[in-house]
Structure formats: structure tokens, C-alpha cells
Amino acid sequence: MSLGVAMGSITALLMGIFLGIVVWTYGVKRESDFKDIANLPLEEKEGRP
Predict the structure, then answer these.
(1) N or C: which end of the chain has fewer CB within 10 A?
(2) What span, in angstroms and rounded, lies between the C-alpha atoms of 24 and 28?
(3) pLDDT along the chain (49 residues), means of 10
């Protein structure tokens, strides 16, 4: 295995890991979490005018 093949394999592996994290983060199952977080600034807190 040459150095170019090894570096290409590592690059492909890291790209796959990155894409997996992106899909996991922005997946459909987490949509409700994002909606809840987006509404936090709009909620009224006790003790604030």
C-alpha cells in the first residue's frame, strides 16, 4: 500500500465520520429539540419584566 492510498483512505474515513455526525445532528428525530431551543428566547421568565 503506497502512501497516497493510505492518505486517501484516511481522508475518506474522516469525511465519512464528518458526514455521519452532520446527519446525526440535523436528523429528523432532533427536529423537536431544535424547535424547543429556538423558542427559548421567546419564553417569559419569572422575575423579569
Answers:
(1) C
(2) 9
(3) 94 97 84 86 73
